[in-house]
Design brief:
The complex is a heterodimer.
Chain A (H helix, E strand, L loop, with lengths): L3 E4 L2 E4 L5 E7 L5 E7 L5 E9 L2 E4 L6 E7 L2 E6 L8 E8 L7 E3 L3 E5 L1
Chain B lengths: L8 E5 L4 E6 L7 E8 L6 E6 L2 E4 L4 E4 L5 E6 L8 E9 L13 E6 L1
Parallel strand pairs in B: 1-9
Antiparallel strand pairs in B: 2-7, 3-4, 3-8, 5-6, 6-7, 8-9
């Protein structure tokens, strides 16, 4: 089984709808991240969490919110989706110790019509 | 976070060595240099990380000169499956949360 899973893998929704993307990990890592990637571009950090009680904004947090329900779960919500939030969303985890390598999930492709 | 500059694309052939250079003139004392590989519609995958001099693992080498203002990722004897986008990232390591800023990356195409 994959260490970092994301659900759903694909989602099409309409403008104004509330959407939740979920991420679960079995690596036992404390740190979790949400990124978005637009076509042909690199990843941009939306939110990150160092532990269950610690949530921080990244580069592009406007229009998004997150919830760290447990060490293993980190959800991203779009409160009122808009078309320019159409993108590929990735969740990642990392350990405090070691090289700081991030482990990425398979991604969620979100389309907002 | 330090800004990085790397070539937009590179072509190579199977069996050749591929070297991708990344410039990071304003790298800070606490910054590490990390490279990730990304295949289409997949999450990035860690390749290698270093602070100074040379680091080697089973898939790549990372060369960092003394001034640390640039770094070179070396992929020995590439195969078709090495066709991917390679990202150079510069930032503080785990102690600072390992927050990553991905630039545009270098699109490497390996030809038969």
């Amino acid at each position: 089984d994959a260490d970092v899973t994301q659900t759903p893998r694909n989602r099409i929704t309409k403008t104004g709808k509330r959407i939740m993307l979920e991420c679960s990990q079995t690596k036992g890592h404390d740190r979790m991240y949400w990124y978005r990637q637009d076509p042909g571009l690199g990843l941009r950090l939306i939110y990150y969490s160092f532990d269950v009680k610690d949530i921080n904004k990244g580069e592009i947090s406007d229009g998004y919110s997150v919830s760290r329900q447990a060490q293993a779960k980190f959800s991203l919500s779009l409160e009122s989706a808009i078309p320019n939030q159409t993108a590929l969303y990735f969740c990642a985890t990392s350990d405090f110790e070691g090289l700081g390598e991030q482990f990425f999930g398979p991604g969620t492709r979100l389309t907002v019509l | 976070l330090a800004k990085t500059t790397q070539p937009i694309s590179m072509d190579s052939y199977e069996g050749q060595e591929v070297n991708i250079t990344c410039s990071h003139n304003n790298i800070a004392t606490n910054d590490y240099i990390t490279w990730y590989q990304q295949f289409p519609s997949q999450g990035p995958r860690f390749i290698i990380q270093g602070y100074k001099t040379k680091v080697t693992n089973e898939v790549a080498s990372l060369f960092i000169p003394a001034d640390r203002k640039s770094s070179t990722l070396s992929l020995p004897r590439v195969s078709l499956s090495d066709t991917a986008v390679y990202y150079c990232l510069v930032g503080a390591g785990p102690a600072a949360g390992n927050k990553l800023t991905f630039g545009g990356g270098t699109r490497v195409l390996v030809k038969p």
